[in-house]
Specification:
Low-confidence stretches: 1-29
Distance between the termini: 17 Å
Radius of gyration: 18 Å
Helix content: 25-40%
Mean pLDDT: 80
Number of helices: 7
Number of domains: 1
Length: about 260
């Protein structure tokens, strides 16, 4: 288990650079949105010619120029970025602004917006099991493990999804189709890399970032099950970055109190 403390100021530009290096592309082809895809179907969408692959691998992640985004990363597939906004109106506009910022930096819009509703971000009042089912659907159809970025209550939901994947909220997690908004009658996916049928539980995200989570949100019934769990990050994510603001009256962070 990774025990990762929240730390540092919110560094938007650095986070955007991480996202760009994780993958950037033109608008991906619309997948077959109904049913279970055939084994290996994602490989056709992920295939790169050798020259493009070599150019991507040769990039320096700390020095990605505008031309690199347009001429190199723009030819590669891009993993889904699931944005989860906070719960107080109109804080969702922050995530909408961040989504537009990422698009302006070169990330494909269709890899950020909810394909069914076209919203920029998910509500923190969405059921954590449902969000996990959406993440699993994207991995199965896109062939790339999604990333999550959560603010405030949305950050708590992002961590909850990681814990759902770890089996802490039950093992039977239904797949949810984000195009139709329907819960499918299955708790397994066809792994796009191996072709094997596997449960949703046990999957992992490639990256997750959380800022300003906790505090007053614990008073809300939908977050009671996260009490004592917020800073316990399971191994269902490759890389996790947590931020807290030194003085945040809503998230209950104060100078010298949350530093560890």
């Amino acid at each position: 288990m990774i025990r990762s403390p929240l730390r540092g100021p919110l560094a938007v530009v650095a986070l955007a650079a991480v996202l760009l290096v994780q993958g950037c592309a033109l608008t991906p082809p619309t997948p077959d949105v109904l049913g279970t895809p055939r084994a290996g179907a994602a490989f056709g969408r992920l295939a790169l010619d050798r020259a493009t692959e070599d150019r991507i691998l040769a990039l320096d992640p700390l020095h990605v120029a505008e031309a690199d985004v347009h001429d190199v990363l723009g030819k590669a597939p891009a993993p889904r970025v699931m944005l989860l906004h906070g719960g107080i109106y109109p804080v969702h506009l922050i995530m909408a602004s961040f989504g537009r910022f990422l698009v302006g930096m070169g990330y494909p819009e269709d890899a950020i917006r909810d394909p069914g509703t076209r919203e920029w971000s998910y509500s923190p009042y969405e059921d954590g099991l449902r969000l996990t089912g959406i993440l699993a659907w994207h991995y199965e159809h896109d062939g790339m493990r999604p990333m999550m970025i959560g603010h405030s209550q949305g950050g708590m939901q992002a961590i909850k999804v990681l814990q759902v994947l770890d089996g802490r909220f039950g093992k039977d997690i239904s797949v949810v189709n984000p195009w139709t908004q329907e819960t499918e009658a299955r708790t397994t996916i066809v792994d796009p890399l191996t072709g094997a049928v596997r449960p949703v539980q046990g999957l992992s995200a490639s990256y997750a970032s959380v800022v300003g989570a906790g505090g007053a949100a614990y008073l809300l019934p939908n977050q009671w099950d996260m009490i004592g769990k917020l800073r316990l990050i399971p191994d269902t994510v490759d890389e996790f970055t947590g931020f807290f603001i030194a003085l945040d009256l809503i998230a209950w962070s104060f100078p010298g109190v949350n530093e560890q």
